[in-house]
Amino acid sequence: MIAMDTADSNQKSTRHWGPSRPLPVTQLLKAPSLLHGFDYTAAMVKLCRDIVRHVPVLAAVDMSRVLVTATISRKNTKYGLQARVTPMRFAGGALTTRRRGMLYGLERYFVNDVEMLYLLTFVLPRFLDRSFEEKLTTVVHELFHLSPAFDGDIRRLGGRCSAHSHSKKKYDDHMTALTREYLAHHDQPAVLEFLRLNFNDLQKTHGGARVIVVPRPRMIPISGRMTV
Q1: Cβ distance 80 to 130 under 8 Å?
Q2: Which of 46, 120, 181, 201 could form an S-S bond across to 197 if both were Cys, CB 3.0 to 4.6 Å?
Q3: How far lies 78's CA from each of 59, 72, 127, 218, in Å?
Q4: pTM of the entire predicted model
Q5: Nearest one of 120, 112, 121, 18 to 61, comparing CA atoms
Q6: Is the peptide bond before 87 cis (omega within 30 degrees of 0)?
């Protein structure tokens, strides 16, 4: 365990959300108010829970410690980043890392006093306008990035590109196979229906949508005496 000899380090390096400070919600599409419209974040959480329940290689994932969020794309182009996973720990689940001789930590996020180990973020509305199959495979792809130890680090596959292995094609083929495995065994088709809606469909069907948007965690330089 590493202790920091800095009196206010915990205050500067943590964010807390709960009943008195709700997670920030943003309207993706216009609705009468944030109380109306489709809760895209909640639907995605429900889908992710169903996926990890039916795909054995993802069984270690605990969605209660994954904060599902969105980022709003400035340009609604078809190509570009669709989604990303932000690990809240360093290699091996470590709380700190050393870069250029300097020790760093990462902001830590708590929701209702439960610490989040990952941010799972979808780029909207860009993600919405992919095909149903592409969107579902993207969700599986991002969940697979979570470490099988579920320690806040990413899954490391070795080689120069440890996140996607030495062959992107083989990695993509594996994600397609896992997606088909899920579709063959899942028993709640209703959890998938929202993925069939594109940007315009979502607006026509629900009149609007809301998503959770939080900043990416900051790297925090750690000063003061360190004891291990």
Answers
A1: no
A2: 201
A3: 32, 14, 8, 29
A4: 0.86
A5: 120
A6: no
Q: Which residues of 58-96 are buried (b: 16+ CB within 10 A; e: fewer)?
A: beebebebbbbbbbebeeeeeeeebbebbbbbbeeeebe
Give the β-pairing of 114-115 and 25-29: unpaired
Whether residue 151 contacts residue 92, with contact meaning beta carbons closer than 8 Å, is answered with yes
Q: Tens digit of pLDDT for each residue in 114-150?
A: 999 999 999 998 999 999 999 999 999 999 999 999 9
How many whole angstroms separate alpha carbon 148 and alpha carbon 221? Answer: 28
225's tokens: 């005496």
DSSP SS3 for 208:
coil
Instruction: Calculate the alpha carbon distances from 152 to 86, 117, 171, 173, 215 in Å.
Output: 9, 5, 21, 25, 17
What single letter denotes the amino acid at residue 171? Y
The packing angle between helices 168-185 and 132-144, to 10°, is: 110
pLDDT above 60: residue 47: yes
